[in-house]
Write a structure and sequence with these properties.
Blueprint (H helix, E strand, L loop, with lengths): L1 E2 L5 H7 L8 E3 L5 H4 L1 H11 L6 E5 L3 H12 L7 E5 L13 E7 L8 E7 L8 H6 L6 H7 L4 E2 L5 E2 L13 E4 L7 H6 L5 E5 L7 H7 L4 H10 L5 E4 L10 H10 L3 E3 L13
Parallel strand pairs: 1-2, 2-3, 3-4, 9-10, 10-11, 11-12
Antiparallel strand pairs: 5-6, 6-9, 7-8
Bound molecules: zinc ion (2 copies).
The site of one zinc ion has 4 residues, from loops.
Amino acid sequence: MLFECGEGTQRQMMRYGVSFALSEIFFTHFHADHFLGVIGLIRTLGLQGRPEPLLLYGPKGAKKVLSTAMQLGVERVPFPVEITEVKAGDTVGKQRDGYDIYAFPTEHGGGPSLGYVLKEHVRRGRFDVEKAKAAGIPEGPLWGKLTKGEPIELADGRKLTADGFVGAARPGRIVAFTGDTRPCAATVDAAQSADLLIHEATFGEEERDRARDTGHATAKEAAQVALAAKAKRLLLSHVSARYSISADELVREAREVFPNASVAKDGLEVDVPFAE
Ligand SMILES: [Zn+2]
Ligand SMILES: [Zn+2]
């Protein structure tokens, strides 16, 4: 899946070896820097003879904007493209294996804009090997049943339930992604306890007014959102071109508020470990 598709997206995917076998693209809003890349990308996917459908999601207006964009790129897209307009609060797209994606409202001004949050389902508790051994349960299929929370019967006739052998359910991971936005309560809500918050930080503090007037956030404001949400990690994105040589200033401003902050770079890969 892909979040946003700006003009450089395809070039960056090729450069960093990101697979083109994607099936979904999530758009936050329809400013050119967030979707124009889809024209070339769909053309490339068509030339590759892709048969699988491509699903596009975005706020109200997505159908009009994206279908027009696609017509600009190719006469006929040789694979099915499905455009779905989503609204804040929606679970986005199909039933997914082990996680869901939700849309949340952002405040960018001039038309609807969304952020997306990926939430893994709660995971089963950890199986306590020592307790199982102490209870004389032989390693093998019975352990597997207990791990899944199923009751078992031992060869000696004892019937046991999984309670006591399996710990409390563990939270899944949460990754929240804002498009362009002012810092807002909806993002704080959506990114609650997030393992990773990817928040726009177009400007530094010296351009605080400009950020406010253009519907963007400063690095410090992004950090305040991360702090309020009790997120574990903050990645600043969408930084203005003036920080392209060095975004140290933005990182410094963010870290004063939220220490675990860094700035996203093209090709960056981030591990999101389980908290427990
Ligand atoms: Zn924008
Ligand atoms: Zn933008």
